[in-house]
Amino acid sequence: MVSFLITLCLFKETVPKRKIVPRPRRARVASTASEDTLVDGKFLLFNEEPVPLRDLFVYPVIISISNYVSIAFLNICMNALVPLFFAMPIEIGGLGLDPPTIGLTMGMYGIGCGTFQALFFSRIVRRYGEKRIFMFGVFTFIPMFAMFPVISLVARHYGLCTRVWILVTIFLSILAVMDLAYGCIFMYITASAPNKRSLGATNGLSQTTVSIARAIGPAMSTSLFSISVEKNILGGYGVYALLCFISVLSLILASMLPAKVWEEKEDCSYHDRTLVSE
């Protein structure tokens, strides 16, 4: 309810209500327009048209969405494994934590992650750039997946000691840093749209595609976790080795992004908006 009220009162609609009015005979037309809108006594002419869906399959859109899918897949696998890892008995590769402890741990992570994003995201991106931050976010999956067996082995030898909780804190801190990559890839996706009238279609395509990855990820990661433990693959840690390998492939894919977010096209057919007064 709080989120709804904030959105209702503070968010600005991207497509404002517009009243179509007849054009006066003496109105001068600066360019061919698909829509005429009266704004503050002036006519606002839009020279942008949404592109067909097939025209969205261009390199900037494809590479941006592909990277979004890769990081969302790795992240959803991580989100499925973390509570499973926390809950499983120490003897089979987990930490054996009870539900209240797991909830408290993840709740503290959520608060810390949100605070970190709000205070430092814009500063970090301005200093290092979107591509570097995104690639670093993808890279963090490699040490995070590698930390699962390390934490498990420490717990097996020493129990739930201070060392384990220090490692868990480091792990969740890295996970919070990884979330910086989401803001960066959203910027790439938004900028990759052919024009502003195609933002909805571009984001819709990205969300549809990433939903498939988010449907596959949890089932695959948890199933592989069970198989790794049951078959004792790499000492029961085979799932983490596979996910580390996928993380490396995702890092290669991330390197294909441009150094700077896609620049807006100068073509007036995409971005030309002209105010014409009577």
Automatic annotation (TrEMBL):
Record bears the keyword Transmembrane: yes
Membrane-crossing segments per the record: 56-82, 102-121, 133-158, 164-189, 237-257
GO cellular component: membrane
Positions of the Major facilitator superfamily (MFS) profile domain: 1-262
Top-level division of the source organism's lineage: Eukaryota
GO molecular-function terms, A-Z: transmembrane transporter activity
InterPro entries named among the record's database cross-references: MFS, MFS_dom, MFS_trans_sf
Alphabetized UniProt keyword annotations: Membrane, Transmembrane, Transmembrane helix, Transport
One Pfam family, short name: MFS_1
Intracellular or extracellular location(s): Membrane
Membrane protein topology class: Multi-pass membrane protein
Protein name: Major facilitator superfamily (MFS) profile domain-containing protein
Organism from which the protein derives: Candolleomyces aberdarensis
